[in-house]
Amino acid sequence: MCKIKSCSTYFTKAVKFKENLMKRTGIVLSLVFSMCLVSHPAFAVFLIDTGIADTQFANQTDFIERDLYGRFVLNSSYKVSDIEGYFIRDPEFLFPDIIPAPLRVSLYKGDAFNPPDHPSPNVRHPDLNNLVATQNFSLPGGETVSGYYGITGGNLSLSPGSYWVGLERGEDLPRVWGVGAGVAQAPLEQYHYLYDGSYFFDDPSAKQFALRVQGHAVPEPLTVSLFGSGLLSLFALRRKRPL
Predict the structure, then answer these.
(1) What confidence score (pLDDT) does residue 227 get?
(2) pLDDT, tens digit (0-9, with 9 covering 90-100), for 67-86
(3) Residue 166 in contact with residue 68, Cβ under 8 Å?
(4) Pick from 137, 145, 130: which is nearest to 103 by CA?
(5) Residues 87, 180: one domain?
(6) Long-range contacts: 235-240, Cβ < 8 Å, 24+?
(7) Which residues are paired to 85 by β-bridges?
């Protein structure tokens, strides 16, 4: 009888231990699943980072008569927080201090093309009718400007596709004097400038401005679905497994 009672007690404890283990395993897997679903800003990385080749002023990339655009492609979905261009003072600027004035960073999705009768026919350029986000910012005044400026702290949901970042002076904004964009060390695939708000030009002689885009990946719905299905299957197998 003692042996039977001892075996019964051991069997009961084993069952409870397994049930507790399953509960703990379920909690851990649920936490892992939640972490996969919730993106955290701390894991943000540079999706685009052209780097700075030097600190020389990028000739022909002033913001008096032209807006600058650079193209990049995303192969998956991202949450984007920062889009910034690198700006530097023109060393040949005649006045000692930069006159602070607002500029604009804009993000467009998709491509458009110049018509055949355009001065630069069939040139691929940003689709200005498909604006994703835009934000004004101000460069500081003074003798020097050197650094990244643009959209910061955003929460843009970007799907796969081609995008264009525009560094724009804007027809509704005051002229910016004495400031240009820094040269990229690892240029983007394609650059254009919009002259006087009417013509897009693909000019190889124009300097390629430095840009960085920061964000974090968004889990694909299929990945999340498969992960959830795997959890359900795991729970089902554990429940059906004989003792």
Answers:
(1) 46
(2) 888 999 999 999 999 999 88
(3) yes
(4) 137
(5) yes
(6) 235/22, 235/26, 238/22, 238/25, 239/22
(7) 149, 211
Do 60 and 151 belong to one domain? yes
Q: What is the pTM of this model?
A: 0.69
Residues in the chain: 243
Both 27 and 137 in one domain: the answer is no
33 and 102 share one domain: no
204 and 233 belong to one structural domain: no
Tell me the C-alpha distance between 131 and 105, whole Å.
Answer: 11
> Amino acid identity of 33?
F
**CA atoms of 131 and 108, how far apart (whole Å):** 5
Its domain, for residue 27, covers 2-39+221-240
Cα 65 to Cα 12: distance, rounded to the nearest angstrom: 83
Percentage of residues of the chain with pLDDT beyond 70: 52
Mean pLDDT, to the nearest integer, of 85-105? 70
Residues 173 and 144 in one domain: yes
Residues 8 and 83 placed together within one structural domain of the fold:
no
Our count of domains for the chain comes to: 2
Any residues with CB less than 8 A from the CB of 128 and at least 6 apart, and which?
Answer: 108, 112
Model confidence over 217-232: pLDDT tens digits?
A: 987 654 444 444 554 5
The Cα 193–Cα 201 span in angstroms is 6
